[in-house]
Specification:
The complex is a heterodimer. Chain A is built from four helices and three strands, in the order βααααββ. Chain A is mainly alpha-helical. Chain A is elongated and about 50 Å long. By secondary structure, chain B is mostly helical. The chains are: A mainly alpha, B mainly alpha. Chains A and B meet through helix 2, helix 3 and helix 4 of A and helix 1 and helix 2 of B.
Chain lengths: ~140, ~110
C-alpha cells in the first residue's frame, strides 16, 4: 500500500479537480457564460471543494482535517445545487447535467468515506482512503 | 415518515428551486433585465437559498446544518427585500411580488 504525503494524491482531491475542470468548461459555453453571477458562484464552490481538502490535509491535525473535509463536502453539495439552476435555465443539457452531478456525488462520497474512516481512527498518524494510505501528520521530513 | 438521504428531497429545497426559477423569469423581462446590479443581486440571493440548504445537508453535522439553514433563510429574506425594490421601480407587477412572497413564506 503506497504511503502518501501530498494532497495531490488524495483520490477525493483528484475527483474534485476533475469536477472543477468540468464546471469551468460547462460555465464557459453559451448562455451559461453570460450569467456572470451563477458562473462565479458555481466556480467558487467547485474550487472550494479542492481547496478545503488541501487545506485540511496541510493543517496537520486530525480534528481540523475532518472539519475541512466537512466544508469540502458542503461545497460539493453547493455545486450540485447550482447545477440544477443551470439545468432549469437550459444552460446545460440533461446529459451534461447528469455527468456533472455524478462527478459531484462521487466527490461527496469519497470525502464522506474519508471522514468516516478518520473518525474511527483517532490519533493515528497514518490514514488510508480506499486502497491508498496517507500520512497527514508525520515528521518534518516530507516523503515523496 | 420517509427518511431523507438527498437534499433534493427536502421540501424547502424544492421550493427554493421554484423560487430561483421564478426570480430568473421575472428578472429576465423588460426593465428589470436592464438593471444589471439588482438582477445580479436577487439572482445570487435566490441561488444562495438553494445552495445553503444543500451545503448544510451535506455538512452532516447538526449544528452546521442549522447554521446553513439560517443563512438560507437570511438569503430568502434578502430576495423578499429585493422584490420590493423591483416593485417600487415598476419592474414587476404587485401580483408577481405576491407569488414570490408566497413561496418565501413556505420556507418558514
Amino acid at each position: 500500500m503506497p504511503t502518501i504525503s501530498r494532497f495531490e494524491n488524495i483520490e477525493a482531491w483528484k475527483t474534485a479537480r476533475q469536477l472543477t475542470n468540468l464546471i469551468y468548461d460547462l460555465s464557459d459555453q453559451g448562455t451559461f457564460s453570460k450569467d456572470f453571477g451563477l458562473r462565479d458562484q458555481i466556480r467558487r464552490a467547485a474550487v472550494s471543494v479542492r481547496s478545503n481538502i488541501a487545506e485540511g490535509f496541510e493543517s496537520h491535525t486530525q480534528p481540523l482535517f475532518i472539519n475541512f473535509l466537512g466544508r469540502a463536502k458542503a461545497s460539493s453539495g453547493e455545486v450540485r445545487a447550482q447545477l440544477y439552476v443551470a439545468l432549469d435555465r437550459n444552460y446545460i443539457t440533461n446529459e451534461q447535467f447528469e455527468s456533472a452531478r455524478d462527478v459531484a456525488e462521487k466527490t461527496s462520497r469519497q470525502i464522506h468515506r474519508f471522514m468516516a474512516y478518520l473518525e474511527t481512527q483517532p490519533n493515528v498518524r497514518r490514514v488510508k482512503e480506499d486502497h491508498v494510505e496517507y500520512v497527514f501528520y508525520h515528521s518534518n521530513v516530507p516523503t515523496f | 415518515m420517509p427518511t431523507i438521504s438527498r437534499f433534493e428531497n427536502i421540501e424547502a429545497w424544492k421550493t427554493a428551486r421554484q423560487l430561483t426559477n421564478l426570480i430568473y423569469d421575472l428578472s429576465d423581462q423588460g426593465t428589470f433585465s436592464k438593471d444589471f446590479g439588482l438582477r445580479d443581486q436577487i439572482r445570487r440571493a435566490a441561488v444562495s437559498v438553494m445552495s445553503n440548504i444543500a451545503e448544510g445537508f451535506e455538512s452532516h453535522t447538526q449544528p452546521l446544518f442549522i447554521n446553513f439553514l439560517g443563512r438560507a433563510k437570511a438569503s430568502s429574506g434578502e430576495v423578499r427585500a429585493q422584490l420590493y425594490v423591483a416593485l417600487d421601480r415598476n419592474y414587476i407587477l404587485p401580483g408577481s411580488r405576491k407569488s414570490g412572497e408566497g413561496m418565501l413564506s413556505l420556507k418558514r
